[in-house]
Amino acid sequence: MISEKMNAAFNKQIKDEMYSSNLYLSMVAYFEEIGLKGFANWMRVQVQEENAHAMGLFDYLISRDGRVIIDAIDKPAFEWACALDCFEAVYKHEQHVTSLINGLIDVAEAEKDRAAVSFLQWYLKEQVEEEANCSEICAKLKLIGDDKHALLLIDQELATRTYVAPTIA
Ligand code: OFO
User: Fold this and answer.
1) Is 88 near ligand 1, meaning CB less than 6 Å away?
2) Is the Cβ–Cβ distance between 93 and 100 less than 8 Å?
3) Ligand 1 touching residue 21 (CB < 6 A)
4) pLDDT (tens digit, 9 = 90+) per residue, 43-79?
């Protein structure tokens, strides 16, 4: 069983993870449009990860006898000035998601829902990795400046990213 407050907070986070998925799908389209297929590949993997984050919360809520309600998702941005501008937006968004997960844990603690606190530790750790990944790419993009050849080398590197389904526990 799960409290009403906790149930509502989980539903909100499911919606937020689905927003993340749509935001990154919008970025896939952007990178495809400007011909950076490796960047687009990186974002495609990110979309899959966000879907897994949403489904992890979805399945957890069901396992706790909660009620999943799918909410409307806001329209994401669709234009960025360059690859760095886009990745800075990713970094900012992931920092925002970290604050959302922290808020969710605050609700779980206030509700004395220790099972939820424990479950959400996975999401907390995942956010450390999410922030580190995009911060690293931002740093590289800043380093290369306007060097198109170096940009294509990063594109080749990002083309190698593959999706590994996470075990959310
Ligand atoms: Fe990008 O971690 Fe979920 O939202």
Assistant:
1) no
2) no
3) no
4) 999 999 999 999 999 999 999 999 999 999 999 999 9
